[in-house]
Amino acid sequence: MRGSETEAIETISIALRHHRERAGISLSELAKRAGVAKSTLSQLESGEGNPGVETLWALAVALDVPFSRLVELPTPHTRVIRAGQAPKIRAEHAGFAAGLLSACPAGASRDIYEIALEAGEIRRAEPHQPGTVEHLIVVSGSMRGGPADEPAELEPGDYTTFSGAVPHLYQAVGGPTTAVLLMEHS
Q1: CATH architecture designation of domain 3-98
Q2: Nearest 5 degrees, angle CA 87-CA 158-CA 69?
Q3: Which end of the chain, N or C, is surrounded by fewer C-beta atoms within 10 Å?
Q4: pLDDT in tens, 127-146
């Protein structure tokens, strides 16, 4: 199992146990509600197994939590996920894998932008309203992006998230760069 998949299983294990205990239900009851074997659920809570998207979706529905709550990593204020390093959850019956980069918090809204940076240009941004969080995924080119005092070096496929309520910047490094910018407002 690859490192990102091991990390995903550990995250799922902790989240499943937390949400099951919060709901006050037994392993047997959750397994019954989700249509999953009790032994499978026990393995998942022990950090073993390799659940597919379908299994996790059924468990999320049975626990009455968004799917993302079972697979999301703890989030520091600034985070970078390198291309291919997001914990992957694979489908059971298809060549499909999903890596959750960030879940939308309750009560928040999001705007999504495609940004294009010319070589060497720096876009310095003033702080936005408190509670604004920015998510940046590089599509092509290389760039620096994030808090002005500590921007991350990013390559195609890399992801970072940071507070938009502090001075921040976007800078193409080398040549033109394209990225997806998602602004979350709460």
Answers
A1: Orthogonal Bundle (1.10)
A2: 35
A3: N
A4: 988 888 999 999 999 999 99
